Amino acid sequence: MLLLNIDYIPGPPREIEALGLVKGTVVQSKNFGKDFMAGMKTLVGGEITGYTEMLTEARQIATKRMVDEAEALGADAVLNIRFGSSSVMQGAAEIVAYGTAVKYK
């Protein structure tokens, strides 16, 4: 599955059919111990690696769910991919990946 955050497929011109919007979403949190350590990290500053890892994993899950939805439509690629995030509650974030599923003609 070709995944691009641009609205065309590079290379020789190729006719495509838009199949529609596909998305994947996940709400993820860290466990209490890691959340507590992240809170302590805010006192001294620096990267909170536990949250960085959590968000990286959440993006991977959301992307996989988006690809699964595109594959169910028979897509060859997903174009114009975007990611969004929001805080659902302290220590938990929602990540959404979305784009346009397309099929080569």
Descriptive keywords:
single chain, 105 residues, alpha+beta, Translation Initiation Factor IF3, four-stranded mixed beta sheet
A few lines on this structure:
The protein has 105 residues and is of the alpha+beta class.
Could you walk me through the main structural features you see in this protein, from its secondary elements to its overall organization?
The chain is of the alpha+beta class. The chain has one domain (2-104): Translation Initiation Factor IF3 (2-Layer Sandwich). Helices cover 35% and strands 40% of the residues. It contains two helices and four strands. The protein has a four-stranded mixed β-sheet. The radius of gyration is 17 Å and the shape is elongated. The mean pLDDT is 87.
Content-based structural category: alpha+beta
Mean pLDDT across the residues is 87
Sketch the topology as an H/E string, one letter per element: EEHHEE
Q: How many DSSP H or I helices?
A: 2
Radius of gyration: 17 Å
Count of discrete structural domains? 1
Q: Largest beta sheet, briefly?
A: 4 strands, mixed
- CATH level-four homologous superfamily name: Hypothetical protein apc22750. Chain B
Give the N-terminus to C-terminus distance in angstroms.
Answer: 15 Å
Q: In CATH, what is the class?
A: Alpha Beta
User: How much helicity do the residues have?
Assistant: 25-40%
Main sheet: which strands, in order across? Answer: 1-3-4-2
| Low-pLDDT regions | none
Strand content: 35-45%
CATH topology: Translation Initiation Factor IF3
Form type: elongated
Identify the CATH architecture.
2-Layer Sandwich
Secondary structure: number of strands: 4
